[in-house]
Amino acid sequence: GSTIGIIGGGQLGQMMALSAKEMGYKVVVLDPTPDCPTAQVCDEQIVAEYDDQEALQALADKADVLTYEFENVSQEALRKLTHVYVPQGVRLLEITSNRLAEKTFIRDEAQVPVAKFARVENPADLDQAVATVGLPAILKTVSGGYDGHGQFDLNTAADVTNLKANWPGGILILEEKIAFTKEISIMVSQTRQGQLITWPISENVHQNHILKTCMIPADVSSDLNDRVHAIAKTIAEKLDLRGVLGIELFVNQETDQVWVNELAPRPHNSGHYTIEACNVSQFEGHIRSIVGLPIPTITLHGPAMMVNLLGDELLQARQAFPDYPEWHFHDYGKAAVKPGRKMGHLTVVGATGIDDLSKYFQTI
Ligand code: ATP
Ligand code: MG
Ligand code: MG
Q1: Are 45 and 67 in contact (CB under 8 A)?
Q2: Which ligand minimizes its atom distance to the CA of 179?
Q3: Is residue 21 lining ligand 1, measured as CB closer than 6 Å?
């Protein structure tokens, strides 16, 4: 059988590995944490840093196909590897690991709506950027941010003055603050044969900048639904995508507008519902795409809801689980519980399950 190598051993790698194993592949993971979530379900772990050239080459030597579960893989290290097949390629990482490159690609190459933005490197640039982008705006670090880390809200001129006095440093991007009524996301993939595959749109609610719940299908007009699927396909085509790409978008239902927020070159947290609610999950779709297998048109078994279990909620939900037989319970097997840390998730399919899960989460 063939072997799939995964760079990164978190929950995304774990669920990729579970799909790959089900399909009969051998899986090897590279991650510095012994017994990380992915290592718990795969055949072998190489314990090393993600940019350790020797360890990456050892992974490449063991694997027929190499993939990654996050965008901050060292591009330089990947380029130096020999005798390796990385179907997703390095360009996908170049674009998605840098918000400036990403927004430039979305605006100029894919030519789909995105917030106005400007590059900012020093306090003088910020004044210039505010003049073009306007206020309110959000200043973000161009790379490495997640769950809203490294973001500064700029609503007034006073906020701008204040930020200049407490300069964060690094390369930054100023983004127009979009007046959205909803946040949604869509997963897309492309097969080696060139078929573009999209999954149903999820409607996402965040708590303290961390994804909390997803409702599927998103409650949007059928016209907007079609436009979002078309946007996803255009982006996938322009990237010559392999594997799954998660696309986060903003929607304003009053003006009937949609904007792309950001791209993730991998399965996405808001696509976890696909494991139980679709004929082919985003993780199986990812594996199929990278190994060159076809993917059928995606169907949804019924309305679904996914809730992230953050910190202590994993234990609470585990205790409540016996009362809710329709819950699909996922425990990532992380050793340390930290507040806000994604420890697992719950998915339900069908109106009754959604009702019960919504009620349960109102009580805790
Ligand atoms: P993730 O964990 O999704 O990777 P991140 O740190 O990369 O998060 P973003 O997705 O860019 O951050 O932003 C986090 C949240 O902040 C968004 O989901 C949205 O609620 C809000 N936000 C970000 N950019 C904008 C914008 N330009 N206009 C309005 N709201 C925004
Ligand atoms: Mg992000
Ligand atoms: Mg985001």
Answers
A1: no
A2: 1
A3: no
Q: Is the CB of 175 under 6 A from ligand 1?
A: yes
Does ligand 1 come within 6 angstroms of the Cβ of 142? Answer: no
φ, ψ (nearest 5 deg) of residue 252: -115, 110
Nearest to 308 by CA among 206, 234, 236: 206
Cα(126) to centroid of ligand 1, in Å? 19
Dist CA 307 CA 47 (whole Å): 31
Helix (H, G, I), strand (E, B) or coil at 15: helix
Distance 270 CA to ligand 1 centre (A): 14
102 lines ligand 1 (CB under 6 A): no
pLDDT tens over the chain, length 364 residues:
799 999 999 999 999 999 999 999 999 999 999 999 999 999 999 999 999 999 999 999 999 999 999 998 999 999 999 999 999 999 999 999 999 999 999 999 999 999 999 999 999 999 999 999 999 999 999 999 888 898 999 999 999 999 999 999 999 999 999 999 999 999 999 999 999 999 999 999 999 999 999 999 999 999 999 999 999 999 999 999 999 999 999 999 999 999 999 999 999 999 999 999 999 999 999 999 999 999 999 999 999 999 999 999 999 999 999 999 999 999 999 999 999 999 999 999 999 999 999 999 887 7
Asked casually if ipTM beats, i.e. exceeds, 0.95, the reply is: yes
Structure tokens, 45? 């772990």
Helices 123-133, 157-165: inter-axial angle, 10-degree rounding:
160
Give all domains of the chain, ordered by start, each with its CATH number.
3-86 (3.40.50.20), 116-176 (3.30.1490.20), 182-363 (3.30.470.20)
Q: Tell me the binding residues.
A: 99, 140, 145-151, 175-178, 183, 206, 261-262
212 lines ligand 1 (CB under 6 A): no
